[in-house]
Amino acid sequence: MTAPADAVRAYDDETLVRRYDADMDVMHPNRSHMARIAGDWLESFPREAPLRFVDLGTGTGYLARTLLERFPRSRLVAVDGAKAMIALARARFGALLERVEFRTADFREPPAVFRPGDAPLDAVVSSFALHHLAPAEKRAILAAARAALRPGAGWFVNADIVLADGPAADERVQAIRVEGIVRRSAGRDPRFADAATARATVDEVARRDGDQPLRLADDLRLLAETGFDPATALWVEYREAVTAGRA
């Protein structure tokens, strides 16, 4: 996960990183479904093709491993700003590690992510990372991703958080989300003991990570404005979406 500088430092805290996947299972139970949708969409490429992917904000490598398993001849560049996250991703990849290149980089600085001389990419993907960026920062990394992709053939696919349309709708979505978090936690984690405590935890995580999610329409607009055509929503549920754009 790449985030503002203080959040990157936070994710270099080993205790926080060890807890990351467990928290994701409780707070974002659609993560596996979203990763599967991303893989389904990219099967416009043959499974046996020697594809080249970049994963922005790879975190613990959840989405990256899904793609490496689905496309057995693919190679992937895993980008993250936190060294501790990359260490955890290395452990997750296991035998797949030989097909992964790691770059410790803040993707608010596109030249550190997409380097001169890199071969054209078949896909740039991201999962629960880009919502940490301000709109101008997101625009910059999208433009850089499009320039790095194969023209007319490469895809950008993003599984991420979005805002509901309007404060009242977003507040209701958050309430539904908190109810699910409390239910899934089932009393095992004091941070999610009840609705009030869970909401406070959710809000603190968003503050700590510098979350800046956009409405789905605004995310799609940024894709279109940076040259992706089509720019489309593949799946949406409440405050989560999978979007895609072709270079």
Walk me through the structure.
By secondary structure, the chain is an alpha/beta fold. The protein has one domain (5-161, 211-246): Rossmann fold (3-Layer(aba) Sandwich). 46% of the residues lie in helices and 17% in strands. The chain has a 7-stranded mixed beta sheet, sandwiched between helices. Helix 3 runs parallel beside helix 4 and helix 8 (167-185) crosses helix 9. The radius of gyration is 17 Å and the shape is globular.
Radius of gyration: 17 Å
- Based on the coordinates given, report the CATH architecture: 3-Layer(aba) Sandwich
Q: Report the CATH C-level class.
A: Alpha Beta
Give the overall shape. Answer: globular
Largest sheet properties: 7 strands, mixed
| Poorly predicted tracts of residues | none
CATH superfamily: Vaccinia Virus protein VP39
- How much of the polypeptide forms β-strand, as a percent range? 15-25%
Q: End-to-end distance, in Å?
A: 24 Å
How is the largest sheet built, in terms of strand order? 3-2-1-4-5-7-6
Q: What is the count of helical runs?
A: 10
Structural class: alpha/beta
Q: What oligomeric state do the depicted chains represent?
A: single chain
Order of helices and strands: HHHEHEHEHEHEHHHEE
Helical proportion?
A: 40-55%
Q: Average pLDDT value?
A: 92
Tally of individual domains: 1
CATH domain topology = Rossmann fold
Would you count the extended β strands for me? 7
